[in-house]
Amino acid sequence: MADPEIKSYEPHHESQSAAVTESRPVRLLLMAVAFAFLAIFLLLPLIIVFHEALAKGLSAYTEALSNPDTRSAIRLTLLVAAIAVPLNVVFGISAAWAIAKFEFKGKAFLTTLIDLPFSVSPVISGLVYVLLFGAQGLLGGWLKEHGIQILFAVPGIVLATVFVTFPFVARELIPLMQEQGNGDEEAALSLGANGWQTFWYVTLPNVKWGLLYGVLLCNARSMGEFGAVSVVSGHIRGLTNTMPLHVEILYNEYNAVGAFAVASLLAGLALVTLVLKTLLEMRYGAEIAATRGH
Amino acid sequence: MEVRVANVRKEFDRFPALHDVSLDIKSGELIALLGPSGSGKTTLLRLIAGLERPTRGKIFFGDEDASQRSIQERNVGFVFQHYALFRHMTVADNIGFGLKVRHGPSRPPAAEIRRRASELLDLVQLSGLERRYPAQLSGGQRQRVALARAMAIEPKVLLLDEPFGALDAQVRRELRRWLREIHDRTGHTTVFVTHDQEEALELADRVVVMSQGRIEQVGSADEIYDTPNSPFVYSFIGESSTLPVKVEDGQVWIADRPIGLSAPHAPSGEAMLYFRPHDVELLDGCSGCIAGTVAASRRVAGTRRVELEIGGERQRVEIELPVDHPAAQKSRVAFRPRRWKLFPTA
């Protein structure tokens, strides 16, 4: 009599074997926890940002964004990113090249040093610049004599941003270049290419997706950096306020629409970055070596 | 182009990889650097290419001292073990790369580069694959493209580092014959590195046997196999059996018995007797021969290998017997090597 019932026990073909699959309720519970966590801590704040920004209508939103101080904050943020990102592309490629392709003393030390900005609190990084370039700082006297303003001005903000975002490009490229080794470069040299041609035609194309990935993360961080920039900026309205700093000022002035309108731009940047990052990972995952937590 | 390596020494972090190596390579010759890993054969090849600089000594291309020249100036074609094809370029772009990066009037126009690439693809029997990417080719095809790319710059010397090392046995044999054909047709002076003695002996005009950073012997396949000049070459090339012996009055002795081999020029004293297991004469009686008891026997393809225990000291030695030889366990077999060599042990 058991025959008809036995049929319902046919194994269903899934990628995982039965032994490592949890029972259905447990799976559902785990997924529910993960989604609930994401919703409360990530999605909800994002919605609130846009909700608050548009709370008094679209015209209030656009008006808040056309405020001269806000405009100047946006301009400054774009300027800082436009300087910091290319600098870190150059530094990052040089550092990665040195570490991946040569053997030299102090290599391990250099590798550790590159990670320093990740392990130091951004506020400390900012303070270092104050101690260096401030009026009472190490170089303060000399700078003042020559009329060079670094602290509480754009150069200081750029320096702090470069410092904080330095590891992104380098850390992306080092494992990639190490994995690829010197073979392609040696081949190019043996075919008569000079150093520059080898870099341009061979090395760079080999790492371009990893590089783009690093640039994306570097850009997102340089536009969103708060701590280090806050210390060196001096918070001068319309002059040295970047977007994150401007959000804080507006918020402290109870200008919710203004604060959230600027915040919504930063959130939009984050979303675009996230989408591009996901696309890159999907398309060129194998060529982007580092999936280590950024 | 003749290549002369003169007293070259190479150290890596003070650790010597090559000791005082000298080698003359004739123009148009196909020469193999053969040795176990760590013997310095790849280092020697990279020194000739200019990928490494010698610690001491010089390398001449013709009469010109090339040691101070950069790899670009040396104009060598180098084929890497793992191909090192540029993965983001098509086959045609890979082959044309060496021409594209030239400067000034020596750089051919784009159409000419394309034409040359197609010509070379014909030569390596891959016509029509111009627009493929390296990832779309098999291992053997990639190696052919790598060779075509190296030949595109009209190199003075062609250098190949374990060219067939990453391929399976079938493709290897095919490519080996094919490389010989290409060499005979183009006449490039060619040096290749291998750890596969069959490959070296079959393919090369001359074989350079290397061990521990030194050249052990240079010669044709016949010379290397038939008259090895050191215990290393004897045991590294082909199969060999060894027996400790004593030389007295121009006769070879094992324990207290002469074994019927005379060595009038060998110095008296302890020595090691080397011979090929298959190159022995089987004897019935034994006055002046090597006799032993069969300790182990195994069938290897068309022959039978037996291990004999010789004399009171139970030295073991391997020889080859015809399959129908009645040598069973514990039976006695007597033989004398036909071709052999003595190397003093003291």
Provide structural commentary.
The complex is a heterodimer of chains A (about 290) and B (about 350). Chain A is mostly helical. Chain A has two domains: about 25-55; about 60-290, MetI-like fold, CATH 1.10.3720. Helix content of chain A is about 75%, strand content about 0%. Chain A is built from 13 helices and no strands. Chain A has helices spanning about 5, 25-55, 55-65, 70-100, 105-120, 120-135, 140-145, 155-180, 185-190, 195-225, 225-235, 245-250, 255-285. In chain A, helix 5 (about 105-120) packs across helix 8 (about 155-180). The longest helix of chain A has about 35 residues, at about 70-100. Chain A is globular, with a radius of gyration of 25 Å. With about 350 residues, chain B is α+β, with helices and mostly antiparallel strands. Chain B has two domains: about 5-235, 3-Layer(aba) Sandwich (Rossmann fold), CATH 3.40.50.300; about 240-345, Beta Barrel (OB fold (Dihydrolipoamide Acetyltransferase, E2P)). Chain B is built from nine helices and 20 strands. Chain B has helices at about 40-50, 70-75, 90-100, 110-125, 140-150, 170-185, 195-205, 220-225, 230-235, and strands at about 5-10, 15-25, 30-35, 55-60, 65, 75-80, 155-160, 190-195, 205-210, 215-220, 240-250, 250-255, 255-260, 270-275, 280-285, 290-300, 305-310, 315-320, 330-335, 340-345. In chain B, the strands form four sheets. In chain B, strands 6-7-8-3-9-10 form a six-stranded mixed β-sheet, sandwiched between helices. The radius of gyration of chain B is 25 Å and the shape is elongated. The interface of A and B includes residues 189, 191, 192 and 193 of A. Chain A: It comes from Mesorhizobium neociceri. Chain A: GO terms for molecular function: ABC-type sulfate transporter activity.
